[in-house]
Specification:
Layout lengths: L1 E2 L17 H10 L11 E11 L7 E11 L4 E7 L4 E8 L2 E2 L1 E5 L4 E10 L4 E10 L8 E5 L6 E5 L21 E9 L3 E4 L2 E8 L2 E8 L10 E4 L2 E9 L2 E10 L4 H5 L4 H13 L9 E5 L4 E3 L5 E3 L4 H9 L7 E3 L6 H17 L6 H12 L15 H4 L2 H19 L1 H13 L6 E3 L1 H12 L4 H9 L4 E10 L2 E10 L9 E9 L4 E8 L4 E6 L4 E6 L11 E4 L14 E3 L6 E5 L8 E7 L4 E7 L3 E5 L6 E9 L2 E9 L1
Parallel strand pairs: 2-12, 18-19, 19-21, 22-23, 24-30, 28-37
Antiparallel strand pairs: 1-20, 2-3, 3-9, 4-8, 5-6, 5-9, 7-8, 10-11, 11-16, 12-15, 13-16, 14-15, 17-18, 20-21, 24-25, 25-28, 26-27, 26-29, 31-32, 32-35, 33-34, 33-36, 36-37
């Protein structure tokens, strides 16, 4: 979700992540709900919503039918999260009226079943209710008149579903499927989740029936009712049916919005290729314009306050990250918002005409480092401002993913993310951060405990002080690091430095930085005139310095003397190590972007390595010796 508080028009749209401070304070005071333990003894299987809505009036009435299974033997009292501002007139089970009670203090509806249920048994109840819902969170149930047209919409994230319907509002039990049936005056249309299966005239009203057959979190169920102009875009799918993008937009804005939504076609193609086909392709994707700034990723139909490239990309990205796989705690909201923020920026990487990927990264790094502290992990889930911190949950969450990508390399990173999305234990369900970490580790073979301790739970960022000196082809580099917050004493990261000669010859060397004050020695096949830290912006950092200091002598580095030849090389590279002491030494070859090409083990004083099949380019050979890390830059012709 991207949050903003601006008027919607074709020219102006702020892409920000929070409402103004006064509104946030009010929302925080209203936000006191946490998952109800009373709702944990049953599983929701299905909801049928039958609502009567007139967008000129902030009011709802209708019937919600819930199918559920008992999670305990002798289950007999069914609780729903429910705000007492609404009134229940009856609860029925197969035509029989049941006893019920609204527990105002707990904000619960308690329904007494006539007979105890056995473990795993299925039953249903229908709740008839009406009223004017309260307005919590980011509105939850709102009515306005954008452009003079009456409109009513919902936005339940994070805790607002109970404001307008009796639900099980948690992050551990998705609803298996839903039907949404909305009766409204015939001048208006109703937008919702899934497929529109019927649109019927009934006197002065129309009845819209939407059907969704995928698991869905309660906060993602949504309706929007107003005068809508309707049109569709279509996303080509190789060897498959095109995916419909159904657009419901205000008639007065239809012309300019049609000039914007074409962008979603190329954006979805990028996401389909990187992360697998849009998860709900056999139903639809859609946009429903609503009278609120920013957007909300309601499953299969995002509600949109604007239609910029970034906003469209962000809300679409949520269909994979937030809807298909949903954070299992608001502590882990970055699994929704960090991913969506990173993916919106990645569209610039893959669609250069849309915007500058480099400028996007610069902006995110500057945003994160604008304050010294703050963790991606949310330490107060009762505070809507903290949950949806634009700096931490969005920007730092996005850059955490960027640094994971850097640490793992593209091949392992993207495969791990696809594995995460398709894991049967969490696909169309809920996930925690440790489950993402497990997939990243299983794919890459890396231990990422330290990384997540520093970048997810820890606060702040590093600053690097790099000194280098060169004697002939031998280069010595010393890397120091300070941190902005005491919660992290050192960030272990692969550190890229670009060395450039006076004639423009250059090489990016990636240093496996494991402690402050670490020395490295390498052979560089040209005389370096300058050096640049992190030229491709992989690391969140600030106030870095790179200094050519002749005092940083290669003689200070205690090291073995090794020689790699020829350099440049063709298909075979030889390592000559006269002082080899007999114990096997681990090594690896990495490319200019820091991605591991192959690993090896040295067991003798002279070894040869095949470079056949490797593309031409600059590579770094690393040896992890008992006396330090050896690096050698070689060129493959």
């Amino acid at each position: 979700m991207l949050l903003a508080a601006v008027a919607v028009n074709a020219q102006t749209e702020h892409i920000c992540k929070s409402t103004d401070e006064a509104a946030q304070a009010a929302h925080t005071r209203l936000l006191e709900f946490r998952s109800s333990p009373q709702t944990q003894n049953y599983d929701v299987k299905y909801h049928r919503f039958e609502w009567v809505i007139n967008p000129t009036v902030r009011y709802i009435s209708g019937v919600v039918t819930t199918y559920f299974t008992a999670r305990e033997e002798g289950f007999q009292t069914l609780h729903f999260d429910f705000d007492p501002a609404l009134s229940v007139t009856e609860v029925r089970q197969r035509g029989t009226a049941l006893n019920f009670q609204v527990l105002a203090a707990e904000k619960l509806l308690a329904v007494q079943l006539p007979n105890p249920m056995s473990l795993g048994s299925l039953d249903s109840v229908s709740i008839t209710y009406a009223g004017q819902p309260p307005a919590t969170g980011f509105g939850s149930f709102a009515q306005a008149n954008p452009g003079g047209n009456p409109a009513l919409w919902t936005l339940s994230e994070p805790y607002g579903a109970r404001d307008w319907w009796p639900c099980k509002q948690d992050l551990n039990d998705k609803i298996d499927s839903i039907d949404v049936i909305v009766r409204t005056p015939a001048a208006y249309r109703a937008a919702s989740n899934g497929l529109l299966v019927s649109e019927l005239q009934d006197g002065a009203d129309k009845i819209y029936h939407w059907r969704h057959r995928y698991p869905i979190a309660a906060y993602l169920v949504a309706i929007s009712v107003t005068r809508y102009a309707v049109y569709s875009d279509f996303v080509p799918v190789p060897d498959g049916e095109p995916i419909e993008v159904l657009n419901y937009v205000f008639p007065q804005d239809s012309a300019w919005i049609r000039n914007e939504t074409w962008r979603i076609v190329e954006i979805m193609q990028v996401f389909n290729e990187l992360f697998g086909t849009y998860p709900f392709a056999d139903e639809k994707y859609g946009h429903a314009q609503f009278g609120w700034g920013g957007g909300m990723e309601h499953q299969t139909m995002s509600f949109m306050g604007g239609f910029s490239h970034l906003l469209q990309a962000h809300e679409l990205a949520h269909q994979w990250f937030g809807d298909k796989v949903t954070c299992a705690s608001w502590e882990d909201i970055w699994l929704n918002e960090g991913f969506a923020t990173y993916l919106e920026g990645m569209t610039y990487e893959h669609i250069p005409a849309a915007g500058s990927w480099r400028n996007y990264l610069v902006g995110k790094i500057n945003h994160v480092t604008g304050s010294a502290g703050g963790s991606v992990w949310v330490d107060d889930t009762t505070n809507v401002n903290r949950i949806f911190s634009s700096r931490l949950s969005y920007s730092k969450g996005a850059m955490l993913l960027h640094m994971l990508r850097w640490t793992l390399g593209d091949e392992d990173f993207f495969q791990a993310i696809r594995n995460y999305l398709n894991d049967p234990a969490i696909a169309f369900g809920y996930a925690r951060t440790h489950q993402l970490q497990a997939h990243l580790e299983n794919q890459s073979g890396l231990d990422l405990d330290e990384f997540f301790a520093d970048w997810f739970y820890g606060q702040g960022y590093p600053s690097y002080q790099i000194e280098w000196g060169q004697s002939g082809s031998r280069l010595a580099v010393k890397i120091d690091q300070t941190t902005s917050h005491p919660s992290v004493d050192f960030f272990e990261m692969p550190v890229p430095v670009r060395f450039v000669s006076a004639t423009g010859e250059d090489s990016i060397v990636v240093f496996p930085h494991q402690f402050s004050g670490q020395y490295f020695e390498l052979e560089l096949p040209f005389a370096a005139a300058s050096a640049e830290f992190d030229p491709q912006l992989w690391i969140v950092s600030k106030n870095n310095t790179v200094t050519n200091n002749p005092a940083v002598s290669v003689d200070e580095v205690e090291t073995f003397r090794v020689r790699w030849f020829p350099n440049p090389a063709a298909d075979v590279l030889t390592l000559d190590w006269p002082g080899f002491e007999g114990a096997p030494v681990r090594g690896e070859c990495v490319d200019a972007a820091g991605r591991k090409v192959f690993a090896f083990e040295v067991t003798s004083a002279q070894s040869t390595f095949s470079l056949r099949g490797m593309p031409a380019g600059t590579y770094t050979m690393r040896l992890f010796t008992p006396k330090g890390t050896q690096l050698q830059v070689i060129v493959k012709q």
